[in-house]
Amino acid sequence: MALITRIKQNVLQYPGEWIVGLFSVIASGATAIRLTGLHMVSILGDQSAHLIFSRLLFDSLTPGISQLGIWPPMLHIVMAPYAASRPLFESGLAGFFALIPFFAASAIFLYKISYRLIHSKWLSVFAAILYASNPFILYYSATPMMEILLLCFIFSTAYYTMLWIETDQLLYLLFAGLSIALATLSRFEGLLLIPAVSVIVFFRMIGREYSYPKIEATFILFWMLAGIGVLELALYDLVYFSNPLAFIGIGASPIWNLEGIGGPSVVFAGPIETFLHASYYMIGAPLVLLSLFTFILPLIRKKDRVLRITALSILAIPAIAVLINMMRNSSTIYVPEFSPLHDFHNVRYALTWMGFVSLSITLFVSTLLSLKTRMVKFYSTLVLLLAAGAGIYHFYTFAMVDPYSVIARDRSAIRSTEANPVSIRLAREYDFGYVFTNRFSNDKVLVESGLPLRKFIYEGNEFHYDETLEHPWLFARFILMSDPNKLSNNAARSPLTEKWYGTPEFDAYYETLYTYSGTSVYRIREAAVLQYVTEKGIDVLNTPSLDRRAKLWDRESPDWKKIDDKFLIQ
Amino acid sequence: MEQIKISIIIPTYNERENADALLERLFSMILLDGGIVAHEFIVIDDHSPDRTYEYFDQKKEQYPFLRVYFKQGKKGKAQSILEGVALAKYDTVAMIDADLQYPPEAIPEMIRGLDNADIIVANRECNHERLVRRSLSRAYRSVVGKLLFGTNVDVQSGLKVFRKDVFYNLKLSPTEWGFDYEFLFKARRMRWKLGSVQIVFAERIAGESKVDIIRTGSELLSGALKLRFRYFFRSVFKFIDSPHYTEAKPLNYNNKVDFLFLQKIHSAKQHLFYETVSLLLFMMLLFAGFSYALSYVFGVGFLVFLSALISLFYLAFMVFKIRVIYLAMKDSPSICYDNNEIASLIDEDLPIYTIIIPLYKEAGVVDQIKKAMTSIDYPNDKLDVIITLEEYDHETISALKFANLPDNYKLLILPNVEPKTKPKALNVAFMYAQGEYLVIYDAEIIPDPDQLKKAVLAFREHPELGSLQTRLDHYNPRQSVISRFFNSEFAFHYDFFLPGLQKMNIPMPLSGHSTHFRTQAIYDIGAWDPYNVTEDCDLGIRLYRYGYRAGMLESGSREEAVTGIRNWVLQRTRWMKGFIQTSIVHLRHPIRFKNEIGGWGPFMGFLFIVPGGVLVNLLNFVSWFVLVTWILFQPNFVQTLYPLPILYLSTGCFIIGTFVFTFMNLLAAYHRERYDLVKFNLLSFAYWMLLSYATVRAAVEFVVRPYHWEKTEHGTHLVKKKPFAFPDFAEGFRRLAAKTTLF
Prior knowledge:
The complex is a heterodimer of chains A (570) and B (743).
Chain A: H1 2-13, H2 15-38, H3 45-56, H4 74-83, H5 86-91, H6 94-118, H7 121-132, H8 135-141, H9 147-167, H10 170-184, H11 193-207, H12 212-226, H13 228-241, H14 254-260, H15 271-282, H16 285-294, H17 296-300, H18 305-327, H19 354-370, H20 376-401, H21 405-408, H22 421-429, E1 434-437, H23 443-448, E2 456-457, H24 463-470, H25 472-475, E3 476-482, H26 489-492, H27 495-500, H28 504-509, E4 510-516, E5 519-524, H29 526-536, H30 558-567
Parallel strand pairs in A: 1-2, 1-3
Antiparallel strand pairs in A: 3-5, 4-5
Chain B: E1 4-12, H1 16-32, E2 36-45, H2 52-58, E3 66-70, H3 77-87, E4 92-95, H4 107-113, E5 119-127, H5 131-148, E6 160-163, H6 179-189, E7 194-201, H7 213-236, H8 274-298, H9 302-330, H10 339-343, E8 353-358, H11 366-374, E9 383-390, H12 394-401, E10 409-414, H13 422-430, E11 437-440, E12 446-447, H14 451-461, E13 465-474, H15 481-504, E14 515-518, H16 519-525, H17 535-545, E15 549-559, H18 565-586, H19 590-597, H20 600-609, H21 611-633, H22 636-641, H23 644-671, H24 675-678, H25 684-704, H26 729-739
Parallel strand pairs in B: 1-2, 1-4, 2-3, 5-7, 8-9, 8-11, 9-10, 13-15
Antiparallel strand pairs in B: 4-6, 5-6, 11-14, 12-15, 13-14
Helix pairs in contact in B: 5-7, 9-15, 9-23, 15-23, 17-18, 18-25, 20-21, 21-25
């Protein structure tokens, strides 16, 4: 009863936050249900990859943080408890449950930012709901992708930076720093927040006539927190990749991207134009254009100008980051309007400035209302109706009429929404032992096969992968391999394919069980492998591909030493 | 002849018929013994049906020294005696049954026996009882007296004479008939001496015996067995056995030998007691047993178990500290007063305030002392300033004499006795303190002028507080690198850590100066321990044990930060050594300590702060060594010590802990607006290494010279640093040329 009373009091004290939060949860939940029905929860290759990263933390031949990989780890970590549930893992709903609190938080923060600027509860609710009702925002709130995490922490960064500017209380700046760290750990675009917010903080301190020692001290404290994400990435890469700056190289060149998705190696489209068009698909052309035309007016007004500039510039950071990357040729967006692909790829990168769009429109309306002119109510109502209408239309089109087709047509999506036949066949044929594969292009099989991930040997399994690569028939009872001629160059260049595909030695020890769309499932020829181990004097009971009781890679066992000595794997 | 004043306690139940004879014989005994100059008879009646109480009450006119009471507590002779002792007003007490089977005439001889013992028991050697009862008595005496309790005295004798002191701190909870053996057993454990005299145990002439052989005998035997069994464990596990025999007597404020007023068990005068040894042995056995079990059941090696334990300790320590800081930052509990509230104090209503200033080799700062003390906003006639000096510190004495100190300043020359420590000086000065409150200021302290008035307000508004800790700061934080670190550490400690401890109701390790006390509180707890080199920390813990709380007072005192590394190491070695001493002293009886300090929460808090503070510094040394070894050589054995879960735990603690506490130091410097000092704290780990080194030194010093007090050099802030100048090469060349034969 005491809890209910406290909740009631909280609702009365923060009605806007509750409305926005509840709306987000309900809308995201409804989206998750719809997407499950449409089999679109984990339709993108990246979604499967994220699910697998999460689960590999504990369900892997080599579990632990080494399985986090080079991507920012935030999503994988928050999703891990849910990925532990097999149904949530296979359905992809682990992402929904992990992201729902962050989605609600992002909407609430956007509400609070708006309210701080315009002091109007209903207009702020409008801004937050405009954001939270975007069909693609809802899509990514219900699927295992990083965008919502990034947005949540960008909004919190903006909010706390604004609070610091208003109150000069260090605590808020520290919260902003922490938010930046979390944003960096969510997506690489978060890295740009560090210099961007630093510039804002610097000019504010200059404006307040801080002494030099105080500026220096404030920056040290701020950067210590804001830099946690960078530090984590660098440390992780140093330990696991021997290169602390390995994460900077991530993000493929357009050429690599195109080759990866099977397109020609010529790029024609300009970054800004492409980005805008992608935004039209993600956010809606009317809203994008309205935002671009309206964001200037609130900045002209003198009152709270600094706060407005702060909020809008921070919310625009994701867009700026993507544009910079595109100009560096380090990340690509493709839309059907432009060559070379004339199709969709990575359009979601253009979604992350949705907060800017919502806020700028709301600020414009609020600014209009503050002007004491006769037609102000008309214009402001018109803009609101336009925005609302555009948002509703966009939602209707991409959530109801042509549900998420933009995503389904993304070149990194797995085209079929049905279960991969390879996964089904592997699940049926599997008896015991390990499955040797390369993860790139086979993530979907790892999710859908139903096998524990610790039964797979893949690139992230450190020396297990290296040793299996040398003598797969000793360790892997099954192999999942792709025909390099049928798939993209990237898949073809996997070490497994390069070393063993089509070789007589491989064919001597493995038979093809099933082939589908260039990917084959192989199983060992037991007689051949048995003969092999007998000749080499290896105990069958210690050969993992032959005996289910074998303790794999027990480095203290005499047989391992035999193998090690005989074949000297370095 | 020694003059005795004696209280004679007579428990009664239906003894009306014996009343007259008893009183007559007792009175005769008194008259005949010329040594007894005062006496009283205290009759405690157990609500006798035969109106024994009323009968005795009528006799008061005839015997003016007769006092008669109804018993208040539970039924039984034991309770009667306890109540009688509580009412006794003289130092010598006798207890005698009212049935006249014990001869009152034996009392004078028993009183004389107190010259060689503390309790004299009347042994019933020749008695005329029936055979059954006589045999049972003898059997009981053999079994219970000799076998169980190891004494030859008659443990069930109803006639005893003893010093009333014996009952100080003697916690008795007897059964109906079980007073005697419990009293003698526990008194003996408190090292009171037992003696005996032989008496003739007469036959009962009037009245009926209350003793039921079967029932009383069973109760006595079972009670004795239970008592012995309970104390058997306490004999083995001494750390659960309290009170200690040194607590048999109250605090001794007359000790002029070494000015130790505390009982030895509460002092660092002796480090090893059986209690500490038994506790260490017990912990080692527990640890060994647990690690063996882990090895046997799970195959976990001993060293792996140890590294897991260390990792868990780091985790717990980190979580504890973060929580403390969080609570302090959320809502600081410091007691604040504004100028109006201070101005509302009327000088006439202010109490006398004692300021103790212990000095040793402080001639250089005498002027500063005078300036600081005369700046204090408090009426001079209410200030009781005591400056203590060693008799051989001629320089300081001379400097003070020439300083023209105000009249209310007393110079107190300390007796030349060991130990030569600051707390000894404080104890000497304390005996002369007149104030209702007192504060200690070290030589170099500059307190806020209104600090005393704020303290008065705080003490008046918060009766639960026994002490007030002020915020310490330095007036030379930038004098050297070490002073910068030191200042940030202070900022963290006084702005974040101590307020957090106050919020959590955990005992605070107080600072050695600028802490204000109620004088009565200091008196109640036995003042300072002259053998503890961090007497301040020990005092703070003891105040908590006695129920006095500490509060943070929002007022500042500035002191001199040590500027040289050597000076810092010496000072910090002493602090850590004192922490070791304080840990040992208070953990002699850990269960009792836990109960006195307020439960598991404060107890765990103490463990983290005091012994934990020492342990973490020592472990840091080891951990850094392992880390550096691993980075340089990557030996296999290090890898085996850290299987994956422990590796994650320890790495996480290392990274997060290093980051969090470095950040806290930065934040603390920022909080005090020492912005230029913030960046220095990025090198906090170097400061922690120094801290570890000092702690290792402390551990060694604890063994080789535990009471050595390394004097911190003061006045370095007064030494002007020479400005930097380029060396005069030309001059140097000329000097070199002059020395050689070349030119």
